[in-house]
Amino acid sequence: MNNKGMFKHRDINTFLTNHPAAEKQKKKPFEYLNLSYSKQFDGSPMKKQPYTSKANENQCKSQQEPLFLRQNTLPNYEPTRCSSLKNGIIKAYAANTNQGLVRDYNEDRVSIILNIIKPQSRENEPWPKCSYFGVYDGHGGSACADFLRDNLHQFVVKEPDFPWNPINAITKGFEAAEKCFLQMAQDSFNQGIPERSGSCAIVILMIGDSCYVANVGDSRAILSAESGKKVIDLSKDHKPELERDRIIKGGGQVYQTHGVNGEGQTILGPMRVNPGRLSVSRTFGDIEAKLEKFGGNPKIVIAEPEIKHIKIVNDHDFIVLGSDGIFDTMSSKDVITQIWKDVQQSQNTNDLHDMMSNAVESVIKESLLRKTTDNVTLLIIAFSVTPLREQEVRVKTTSYIDKLVNFPQSSNSTNLRTKKYNDENNPFFMNAQKLKQNPKLMKSNFEDNFQYRLIG
């Protein structure tokens, strides 16, 4: 079956793509059935990949430059994922995640469901165009971020309030997801396998021209408007110092770590919350901070989202979702400025999808040049980037997404993923075709309710 058009894998010769090929790895558990897809993204984000440096063309460069700049490579690099078709008011999207300069693992995860289709049980109802984008910044392990990547959207979409009361659907869906993961973590502890991981979440739910931003933690959503002249924060970082009153009222503490460097100078660390000893005040997971049997307090570190609603209008350019690894060294304005700088330099491409993909890589590069020490993830959702528009000749009739093609399940097909659609080592969950509601979420084995068209 022809699978061109819905999702594009970029590997152009840019700064980030000058990297050596990863060594061929053994098949991992739950390997993709789509062989071409698994070969393209064979490098695991959970395992540091070997790489070698190229000959340094400029021997005069300072040895204080970051290693990746001198070698023109990134450890465990994976190409930026970007769209090739639009869907409603979403004209393009692009995303990438990287372990960064210091860590040899990546706990960030990304979900992209471009088109949420009406379930058969509600076929007599009207149904707007719906899309879902999520960035999950895990800590203490990747299990919680993996869980959210694969399942948080299902909890939201299966709510009866979806899509006509999105705020209630998001609130109830997030609450159900939190309860489910904490139960899974507790069951794991009972079996003698400690599961302490947690994750932040920043989510965009598009319903028609309405945008709902749901935030738990310190990842961030930013809106660029009027060709970058306006930079609007769509979320508020959930830091202990910013939620001090709520934390103390609930019986918790806010404190700051400190230490002494080799020169005897006192170095102040981040503000933290106790119980949990976390530098963020809202998360999913983190069972030891929340369950009393582990010394936690359910009123302190919470998974209750702050939700913001805006209408997308012609002056809105794009929305950026990013993990705190980006914003540790760049302000919201810095990020938007960097994107527009790259867009202006890419005017000759006349392709919005490629421009957004280049812009993602440009921001990640800039954050690493500024020596961020965390994993870095960036996702751009473009609405209208003037004067550069997407090429309308791409789609002369209704897009593939609107045609709702039904794909047969076949063991001979290499273009479909069936059971075990997500490798636990893959940071991306992408479904550009179809999302069904899951009537029953199992505790540890989630049945596949998706039909895919994966584009290489």
TrEMBL record:
Residue ranges occupied by any PPM-type phosphatase domain in the UniProt entry: 92-383
Any single Pfam family the record assigns to this protein: PP2C
Bilayer topology annotation: Peripheral membrane protein
A Gene Ontology cellular-component term: membrane
GO biological process: signal transduction
Molecular-function annotations in GO: metal ion binding; protein serine/threonine phosphatase activity
CDD domains documented for this protein: PP2Cc
Cofactor: Mn(2+); Mg(2+)
Localization in the cell: Membrane
InterPro entries in alphabetical order: PP2C, PP2C_BS, PPM-type-like_dom_sf, PPM-type_phosphatase-like_dom
Name of the top EC class for this enzyme: hydrolase
Main location, first listed in the record: membrane
PROSITE patterns tied to this protein: PPM_1, PPM_2
Keywords for this protein: Hydrolase, Magnesium, Manganese, Membrane, Metal-binding, Protein phosphatase
EC number: 3.1.3.16
Enzymatic reactions: O-phospho-L-threonyl-[protein] + H2O = L-threonyl-[protein] + phosphate; O-phospho-L-seryl-[protein] + H2O = L-seryl-[protein] + phosphate
Gene3D superfamilies xref list: PPM-type phosphatase domain
Database matches in PANTHER family: PROTEIN PHOSPHATASE 1G, PROTEIN PHOSPHATASE 2C
Family: Belongs to the PP2C family.
Name of this protein: protein-serine/threonine phosphatase
Organism whose genome encodes this protein: Paramecium tetraurelia
